[in-house]
Amino acid sequence: MAKDSKLRQEQGVVLSFIPTGEYYFNKGINAYHRHDLKKAKKYLQRAMQLEPYEPMIACQLGLVCMQLDEFQLSNDLFTRILEELDPNMTECHYFLANNFAELGLFHEAYKHANKYLEIDPYGEFAEEAEDLIYVINTEETDLEDSLYMQDELIMKQEKARQLLESGNFQMAIENLKEMIEKYPDFWSAYNNLALGYFYLGEMEKAANVLKELLDKNPGNLHALCNLAVFLFHQHRDEELQELLDGLEKIQPLLIEHQYKLGATFALLGKHHKAFYWLNKLKKKGFEGDASFYYWLSHVAYSTGHEQTSRSAWKQLLELSPEKEGSEPWNNNQQTDAGFENHVTSILNKLRSDYLEERLFGIFLISVTDRKQEIISHSDFKSLDEFTITEKLYLANVLDAGMKEQFDPDGIIGKGHGVASLLYEHHHPIYPQTTGLFHMWFSIFINGLKEGVSFTNQNAYAAAVDYVWNQFQNEKISQSEISRRYHISPSTLQKYIKTIRQYYQ
């Protein structure tokens, strides 16, 4: 019997089999040797969950990700090994150098290749590292500064993108503003900054960023597409139609622009136009991400191209198997999960630099279907890292006894109650609605400092909802919001004034 099996027989009693990290590591290695990289990745990820501090597992997973062209994830693993798990695994510097070279980040590649040779000049990969340095050095020397700037820009942009995707919008905004200040002609930073403001519900700021971009770079297709999405969500139909009339006449040559245009038309419900561009890319042999196959499948099905739709969905499931069951031809398809079931996003929010985002992360734990998976995750921060406010809130969410002892007035619970009322009317939580909850928790934090009791939860929820809609330029009346939260219009007006004191 395998040494890592926990199966034992004692006096006729058979204990259940509990696989260990070593068990999954060995399965991952076997799959790797069979060149089944997807299975290898799956097994090694499971091994790492069971033994998160074992550097050999992390290193092997990094190598598998490297061969799957998942360079950013691979780099994250090698960096973690060097910074946290085992700084003596010097070969990780060589692996990082290779990944950065594949990404075109030659300055970073050069730095890590040199670091490897400095630490281990006679190491296993010394010759390969010297060859890599030679290749990098064949570039013209006068390109060194521009390469360094390009490397820095790409790395900063990637970091901002990850922050946006994980819901850390405020931090992403600060990073992007710094980028624009330093590199005022880096147009993609403007587009991402506008998206950050959009997700926070600060529509005027989002629009101003796009206006500034279009003033400096007229005809920027990404800005025009993003503006169309903003107008769509604000129900500004006349302005949207005018913009769409212009977008329909554009014939972009770049693949990136064709994809952006197709995805935008799909999002706006213009399925025939979306199918034209996305299917054109497919016919050219374009290999997109999961989002590409998702939109292609939906617009193909809605325009009568069922075979193309099914083929695209099959490719989507290879990249995102969790989408099974939500096919466009499935009448019982469920709505895509919002932030509340994105484990990585919640874990990232809990580690945000901003208290309102961390409290929002704890709220998400209260409504997620994956609570146990989150709190038992290796990246779930230890209780010592939580502030007292966060501990009290987490105690409320997990229904621990600590809340009665340290929060006898139940103020933390009332704050949670307001968020829950908002959730009743705004779920699932998508990126463009997260700003509503950030707004509430920001108000809540400032109110706590002033000793506010938050007694009338319905009134606070109604006031936040109304102000949020105003920020989005949504046309909704005070009487409608009052009915929604079962309060009088005069009470709503009173609490609108109240929350404006705590949210500037």
UniProtKB/TrEMBL annotation:
Which superkingdom does the taxonomy of this entry point to? Answer: Bacteria
> Which InterPro entries does the UniProt entry name for this protein?
CellSynth/LPSAsmb/PSIAsmb, HTH_Psq, TPR-like_helical_dom_sf, TPR_rpt
Which SMART domains does the entry mention?
TPR
- Annotated GO MF terms: DNA binding
Leader peptide range in chain numbering: none
Q: Note one Pfam family from the annotation.
A: HTH_psq
Q: Which UniProt keywords apply?
A: Repeat, TPR repeat
Designated name of the protein? HTH psq-type domain-containing protein
Q: Which regions does the record annotate with the repeat TPR? A: 21-54, 187-220
Which positions fall inside the HTH psq-type domain?
461-499
